[in-house]
């Protein structure tokens, strides 16, 4: 192996003590009074400083670049021929204009193939075989010349096998250690399991975990994902997503933990523990680093479209949208990925205040900040706050970006070096960024062991029955019973069932995006061993009792919303042979910008299907399988029962069958507000002034909040009674803890689990208070007839809010604490305002 860092190590070692004395100021440990977010480890820091001291400027800048693996290889298509209808559909899905599509269609097959062969876009005839090959010469150049620190993604964004990942990443690490003596850190979007590893365990999507209100399920899922990621030699995952899902139009609601800041925060803490383990300075061979995203307010675009600006009151920004990220940092998150867009006109990638001040300084956090996909470019191409790429790099790096995900270009290295030589980016800022990256690699143990999973016997649980059972349990606890008139459910065996709707027989719908591919499409072959809803119901009720006639189906060659010509009459005719109808409706899979919509209503074909079936007089069970709440107010009254599965993963069909049959009990609750109409899009914590009936006089001020199902709503096959709600203090100050207890009894005949939610309401405040806020939650298991006392302990400071001056304040006055239909008063006896940015 060549000498690391060009053989210059010895000449720098004499300076080590001097450098170490300076490093505390640079790393932030001594600069700020607050406790470090991640405990200081002197031995680890010595290693970091020793490595940094031997690095050249080129090596430090190289570490700050992350490239896409596709750049280091080629996708070869044997006997490739373009299917132009597939091309048209694919381009439509990716948002291309009709004019651009027509231009593509006029190109030759050769030119089209050259343009798209490295992408997982199915535009070829069915007899075309594609295979990606790593170009080691290209990889040599990228690492030896540009010293890059990270590589990401799967070739053509399609899941690869463990042997493939082991081959590719081992080669990358061998060359990284040979040429620069620093290991690469490989990153993947393993978001609800190992997205990009064939044969791994797919858990329910994050929105499902939020619906479970069970943080232990989130921890277990992250732990399994970390284990299976490391089996494939990947030490870094871009998860969890902590964007508040507050706008149902947004295409990434399902990637979040819903609309509430506390649910997002608690789930984040649980997942970070599952991913990273209990020691954030020394991750083990079964742990991965997290990249918490997308910092922040990314989930509240004003237009509802992905990657578009948010306009949010500054006090709400800190109080609600920042809170999950603050909690994640305090839990030890090692990296942060940044919002692609802007907040109140300020691109987050350009904001020193948000990146350096709020994250690094105010929280005394020594982790690393990475951009999202090519987002530095957006500063000049879209946001127009920079004149060109070089200027954009200057702004972003000085704002606090440490690593640029610049997937297809090494221009970043060239331009950043020029900026340093010109004095427009300081050497200290480069050192700080490189230090954070090197620290991350030491924390992961990559210098000592650049590869994991080489001995597969150490990862024998990969794709195991044990992990599958955990995923099934998570799915069962995350599907919500929203309606059950006349105890329509559980559904007894022996009945004839008409199974209909576009989501009835497709794994893609159950999993959603980030499943074997970016969009979750064109990968049905990788999920063949799992059960669709149809297959699961056949297993549960007997194939002879299930009539499959979908009536409406998706066009798999088009955009996610495209449907084939409906055959509703066939479904209606089949209803005559059925005792009950189960209509599986919702959305096909999508992800990010291709999932944008212009109409929040569920498709007309699907609603017409349900309306036609209702006329048969047969009872209807609606199964919603969708990534965000699609409006369906006109068909909800036609159903006897409604179940929301969200995106429950590979075992979601089995979980649904167990729940419908009563072999498992519903225990999930809504993680977001399900709207009734397009002009009533709101969240549960709306301001009290947003719901007013009438105004005195002739003016009718009708501002009632209208919804279909509220946040926190969910039914069960049993019933629960709450009693004896009490709080230990009738008066409190900001330093107190409040202990709140409530008795919960299972008053039914079926065992169950109940998510107990504690809310607070500030009755009078200096700015209009929220209607209510969730403060804590806990899931409790109760046998039939059993009573348990559930106790919460919350800091009184949790009842503070951010005022219009941007400061946290807890005001003297009355509060109500609420659990279910019970409430108990308490009061703050003394106003206190924090002078620090965080409580």
Word description of this protein:
With 839 residues, the protein is of the alpha/beta class. Helices cover 31% and strands 18% of the residues. It is built from 25 helices and 31 strands. The strands form eight sheets. An eight-stranded parallel beta sheet has the order 11-8-7-6-5-4-1-12. The radius of gyration is 27 Å and the shape is globular. Mean pLDDT is 92; it is low at 1-33.
Topology (SSEs and partners):
Blueprint: H1 9-13, H2 16-27, H3 42-53, H4 57-63, E1 65-68, E2 73-78, H5 84-93, H6 98-105, H7 109-116, E3 129-134, H8 136-146, E4 150-152, H9 162-179, E5 185-188, H10 206-212, H11 215-231, E6 236-237, H12 261-276, E7 289-295, H13 314-321, H14 323-330, E8 335-338, E9 342-343, E10 346-347, H15 352-361, E11 368-370, H16 375-381, H17 389-399, E12 404-405, H18 411-421, H19 427-443, H20 465-476, E13 480-484, E14 497-500, H21 507-511, H22 533-541, E15 546-548, H23 568-574, E16 580-586, H24 604-614, E17 620-625, E18 641-644, H25 652-661, E19 674-675, E20 707-709, E21 720-727, E22 731-732, E23 737-746, E24 752-762, E25 773-782, E26 787-795, E27 801-802, E28 808-810, E29 813-819, E30 822-828, E31 832-833
Parallel strand pairs: 1-4, 1-12, 4-5, 5-6, 6-7, 7-8, 8-11, 14-15, 14-16, 16-17, 17-18, 22-30
Antiparallel strand pairs: 2-3, 9-10, 13-18, 19-20, 21-23, 23-26, 24-25, 24-29, 27-28, 28-31, 29-30
Helix pairs in contact: 2-3, 3-19, 4-19, 5-6, 8-9, 11-12, 11-20, 12-14, 16-17, 17-18, 20-25, 22-25, 23-24
